[in-house]
Write a structure and sequence with these properties.
The complex is a heterodimer of chains A (about 475) and B (about 230).
Chain A lengths: L1 E5 L13 E5 L8 H4 L5 E7 L5 H10 L9 E4 L5 H16 L9 E4 L16 E4 L2 E2 L12 H5 L5 E4 L2 E4 L9 H5 L5 E2 L5 H14 L5 E6 L11 E6 L7 H9 L4 E3 L13 H17 L7 E2 L23 H11 L6 E2 L6 E4 L9 H5 L5 E6 L2 E6 L9 H5 L8 E4 L2 E2 H6 L2 E6 L1 E3 L6 E4 H11 L4 H9 L6
Parallel strand pairs in A: 1-2, 1-3, 3-4, 11-12, 11-13, 13-14
Antiparallel strand pairs in A: 5-6, 7-10, 8-9, 15-20, 16-19, 17-18, 18-21, 22-23
Helix pairs in contact in A: 3-6, 7-8, 7-9, 13-14
Chain B lengths: L9 H18 L5 H15 L9 H14 L3 H12 L12 H5 L6 H15 L15 H20 L3 H32 L4 H29 L4
Helix pairs in contact in B: 1-2, 1-7, 1-9, 2-3, 3-9, 7-8, 8-9
The chains are: A alpha/beta (about 475), B mainly alpha (about 230).
């Protein structure tokens, strides 16, 4: 297991316990020297920004039998101290070790921009970026979920008859679909929460001083190292949800940087989304009694001390509610409500809800669930899983009567409760076969709709199931 | 400038793709000793054409190693070929024909698939020769069709025949989208589920990875011929 560093420009060599660190002169200009070098498995590479070709590097790694998408490249855009390199290297190695592996379905070729009709590889060799893939077994499209489709800025995703189809040709691999997906079915193997968490934790642990984490777009030009700040690459800063923006604080960083897309001249247009989310994350920090000053567009020289540790309660999804609750835990706040983030508090009015379970059948995140306990229908909600999509309200046939409401907010008191029952309803049973007919509340609703003239019909359907009538 | 061996023009790229399809087509034919030797020679030639710079290299190199090893035991390979692909009592483990995956034999759809393919080959002006002993929907035939279309693309580029070039790339796209690219993943999934020798175990992922990659290449080529500025 080794870290390879380009030794040019008097780059100091970091020291990583348990890892072979190999310095190769001229590596940026000739990544092919990786192939001949006597090394163990290459886990991460440190190269000088603007001096290497990613396509050559990927080819050299492939020749060594490595998966190039799983080997982080730390780009050095200026002089860096040995301690900075050591911390950055520790992060890159941790990210590599958390790499889940990629398959052919993830490799998206980027064509040379100045490709002519008659020439192809005149400019450069092809390079590949990781594109997302959808796990059909966990995708909630058949429940009507199309959150990824609506969020995709390039039209690469389409929902049709309960299935999401994906067109890699149109995809720009920005990762927005992966952070929008409420079930974790859509993933980019190079930017999973597991990897990013591993990288941030390793950076925090390796540093003697408080650290700032700057999310950096894959296509951004590398910036010179700033003491105390470390870049964490993501496919696009537009993919950063409120949960992702706050996650570094939960994981022990003291500050976060999230540059806008316009800073790198990107045409994807995700800037406004990021701006709104930064604002929401700032509002959350304010509400929790921390300071929005921990959140910047760019790295700042001073990094404040980290918050207390709330990482214990922080899972894999990095949902907005999850990050909010973990921060509240870290700051010992047990009473705070903020209208921000993609989350919500669902309430069901027992007087008007007919327990038809439409809401639970469409909930993409399974925040709303229903089950049977002793013949009773029980509808439960876990606000921690709610993404505030509103599908439950839109589907409810009794929404006009206020049977279900969704308040888009984050509420510590609600979140700490965890999953709880919001509706219990009895089920009428057939007098002949003893099988279930329908929720009693639904039959009552039918009775009130049909009125006394059709009381006989209602009596019949209330006593006997469809098969026994 | 580092010499990668990669094609320097789209014409050379088409020749490389043609070679890839041909080698894979041969790998799905009966593994006679001479054929296996030719396959190994073909992989060595293609390897020098910059394959490590293309994403399917990992899967390809595993299969190439298996092919080199298999050259030493062609008899064992023949037994496995019959078990995997040739129809016998109980049928083959992984039938190498499109109609098996895309047609209902009871409803007579096998004939439809073959008729569609015949019509497609007519459109592409490709006629099977007497040397073709398999059905028109056999994987090696379909891979050879793509090889022929790649060869035609290279010739069109060489002759600067833009009209023919556009038509040929359209045919490549159509054939991958409607035929080979649709059923190959299902066929490969069956191959992968079976316990077999390394040559066939690695062949499935290698061909699937290459064809998936090539579908992206063809889409790009199609876009580039549509844009006059390119």
């Amino acid at each position: 297991m080794s870290l390879v560093v380009c030794a040019d420009h008097d780059t100091p060599i970091p020291t990583i316990p348990g890892t072979e660190v190999v310095a190769i002169a001229g590596l940026c200009g000739d990544p092919g020297s990786l192939v001949a070098a006597e090394l163990a498995e290459v886990e991460a590479v440190m190269l000088h920004a603007g001096e290497f070709d990613r396509g050559f590097l990927q080819g050299a790694l492939r020749k060594r039998g490595a998966d190039p998408l799983g080997v982080p490249v730390v780009e050095l855009a200026g002089p860096a101290t040995e301690p900075w390199l050591t911390v950055a290297a520790a992060g890159a190695l941790a990210r590599h070790r958390a790499f889940p592996g990629s398959g052919p379905e993830h490799a998206k070729m980027r064509w040379p921009e100045l490709l002519s009709r008659r020439r192809l590889f005149a400019m450069t060799v092809p390079q590949y970026i990781a594109a997302p893939a959808i796990d059909r077994t966990t995708c909630a499209a058949e429940r009507g979920c199309r959150l990824c489709v609506d969020a995709c800025p390039s039209g690469a995703l389409r929902w049709d008859a309960g299935q999401v189809s994906y067109d890699m040709d149109l995809c720009v691999a920005c990762g927005i679909c992966t952070t929008t997906c409420p079930t974790g079915a859509t993933t980019n193997p190079t930017a999973t929460t597991g990897q990013v968490a591993a990288q941030i934790r390793a950076i925090v642990e390796a540093s003697d001083v408080p650290v700032g984490i700057e999310y950096r777009c894959r296509d951004a030009v590398a910036a010179p190292p700033v003491d105390g700040w470390f870049p964490v690459e993501v496919p696009c800063t537009g993919m950063l949800t409120v949960g992702w923006l706050l996650a570094p604080l939960v994981l022990g960083a003291g500050a976060i940087g999230a540059p806008s897309c316009t800073d790198i001249g990107c045409e994807l247009g995700n800037d406004l989304v990021l701006k709104e989310r930064r604002k929401a994350a700032g509002a959350i920090l304010d509400e929790l009694g921390s300071t929005a000053e921990r959140l910047h567009r760019r790295s700042r020289p001073m990094v404040p001390d980290p918050l207390g540790s709330g990482a214990g309660a922080f899972g894999e999804s990095w949902g907005d509610a999850e990050a909010f609750l973990a921060l509240a835990d870290a700051l010992s706040v047990d009473d705070a409500v903020v209208e921000a983030g993609s989350a919500g508090v669902v309430a069901i009015d027992a007087a008007t809800c007919t327990a038809c379970e439409q809401c639970t059948s469409v909930c993409p995140s399974t925040a709303l669930r229903s089950g049977r306990i002793d013949g009773e229908i029980e509808i439960t909600v876990d606000p921690l899983l709610c993404v505030g999509c509103g599908a439950c309200v839109a589907t409810c046939p009794e929404r006009a009567h206020g049977a279900i409401t969704l308040e888009r907010c984050l509420d510590v008191a609600e979140l700490v409760l965890g999953r709880r029952t919001v509706r219990s309803a009895t089920t009428a049973t057939c007098e002949v076969c003893r099988g279930p007919i329908a929720p009693s509340a639904m039959l009552e609703r039918i009775r009130s709709m049909l009125g006394p003239d059709l009381a006989g019909t209602v009596d019949l359907i209330s006593r006997r199931c469809l098969n026994c009538r | 400038m580092i010499d990668t061996g990669l094609p320097e023009s789209l014409e050379e790229l088409a020749r490389l793709r043609q070679g890839m399809y041909r080698v894979f087509a041969a790998a799905f034919l009966e593994p006679e000793p001479d054929r296996i030797r030719d396959i190994v020679a073909g992989t060595e030639m293609l390897e020098a054409m910059g394959l490590p710079y293309l994403a399917f290299y990992r899967e390809w190199s595993r299969w190439r190693d298996a092919a080199v090893a298999a050259a030493g035991d062609p008899r064992g390979l023949r037994v496995e070929y019959v078990r995997m692909f040739a129809t016998g009592i109980g049928g083959a483990i992984s039938p190498p024909t499109e109609s098996f995956y895309g047609a209902d034999p009871i409803r007579g759809e096998v004939g439809e698939v073959l008729a569609e393919l015949r019509a497609a080959y007519d459109r592409y002006r490709l006629a099977p020769t007497d040397a073709v002993a398999d059905t028109l929907d056999h994987v090696s035939i379909e891979l050879e069709v793509m090889a022929a279309l790649c060869a035609r693309e290279a010739d069109s580029r060489s002759a600067a025949n833009d009209r023919r070039l556009e038509l040929t790339i359209g045919h490549q796209r159509e054939f991958l989208d409607r035929h080979l690219g649709v059923w190959l993943p299902h066929f490969v999934a069956r191959m992968s589920a079976a316990e077999t020798v390394a040559f066939y175990a690695e062949l499935g992922p290698a061909v699937a990875s290459f064809v998936r990659h090539d579908a992206g290449v063809v889409r790009f080529l199609e876009r580039s011929v549509m844009e006059p500025s390119r």
